[in-house]
Design brief:
Blueprint: E1 10-11, H1 15-28, E2 33-37, E3 47-48, E4 51-52, H2 56-61, H3 68-85, H4 92-112, H5 120-125, H6 135-144, E5 149-156, H7 157-166, E6 174-179, E7 181-183, E8 189-192, H8 202-208, H9 210-215, E9 221-226, E10 243-250, H10 254-264, E11 267-270, H11 276-285
């Protein structure tokens, strides 16, 4: 048993099942493992000292690259749509068109701001974004063991990459699938590239990238990490999957959502701002006890 699974933040509906999955994965060896993770509020912190930490979108919202008027409009969108996103009484089908509406409106507002590419790094460095405690070990250990890390994010890929680059952990084994900005030849934002990736269609994101999953055919064991029920479909593109261990961060609205998380994730971490448990699982799977 991994001692960290007895941490007070850990909840499991079926601890024996977790043991069985871990046992199978250890037996298969770490060269059959891939890690698929969400980014905002999964690899980054939800809050620090009682204050909410920013998502990739918030980093822009709070920066000086956008006007006060635009900030106000984005804030209005957040207060309109975020309660819908986390409303456990609504079905995914019901939320879906509303989430698309939110993301599309937000992206349109950002495009209107004519954001300059060369200002993104500064927006990130001046922000209060924080990767979860233990991130260095997490990223470095995966890199040292040549285990692919696929990050699926409904955030903004350019910002996300800048966050991990500035943290010194954008290693060669990291692949990011997200919403990327399209800049014109003078480096000004003119659109977002490709299909919109939002919280409930990461599965399509996964399937669009099946070419990428092809390369991972020899890695049928998946460690999946997320903080929303929409994140559970991120591994849908994986073919011939043998084992999947799902770790869910329950950051907010704990009582209302705890049961649905326990029903869906193998390990639920309640208000845990660290990567201590995922790191312990990784150490176990790579034979570093």
């Amino acid at each position: 048993m991994i001692p960290e699974l007895s941490n007070p933040s850990v909840c499991m509906k079926d601890p024996q099942r977790v043991q069985d999955i871990l046992h199978s994965m250890v037996k298969a060896g770490s060269n059959t493992l891939q890690v698929i993770s969400d980014f905002d509020m999964t690899l980054t912190r939800f809050s620090h000292n009682g204050k909410r930490c920013p998502t990739c979108h918030n980093i822009l919202d709070n920066s000086k690259v956008i006007s006060a008027d635009c900030k106000q409009q984005l804030d209005h969108l957040l207060h309109t749509y975020y309660p819908i996103e986390i409303d456990s009484s609504r079905s995914v089908e019901e939320k879906l068109p509303l989430m698309v509406e939110w993301w599309t409106k937000a992206h349109d507002l950002l495009v209107e701001q004519k954001i300059r590419k060369d200002l993104l790094a500064e927006a990130v460095s001046e922000s209060e974004v924080m990767l979860r405690e233990g991130f260095q070990l997490f990223f470095d250990h995966l890199h040292e063991h040549s285990i692919p890390l696929l990050i699926f994010s409904a955030g903004i890929g350019d910002i996300l990459e800048e966050v991990i680059r500035q943290a010194g952990v954008f290693h060669s084994n990291v692949n990011v699938f997200s919403n990327y900005m399209d800049f014109d030849e003078s480096g000004v934002l003119r659109a977002f590239k490709g299909e919109l990736i939002h919280i409930y269609n990461k599965r399509e994101g996964a399937l669009l990238n099946t070419g990428h999953f092809q390369e991972l055919r020899t890695r049928p064991n998946v460690l999946l990490m997320g903080d929303s029920l929409g994140d559970l479909s991120m591994a849908d593109g994986v073919q011939d999957m043998e084992n999947i261990l799902k770790i869910g961060f329950l950051n907010d609205k704990v009582e209302e959502r705890k049961q649905s998380y326990l029903d869906s994730y193998d390990i639920v971490l309640i208000k845990d701002e660290t990567l201590e448990v995922p790191n312990a699982v990784l150490m176990h799977l790579t034979g570093n006890k």
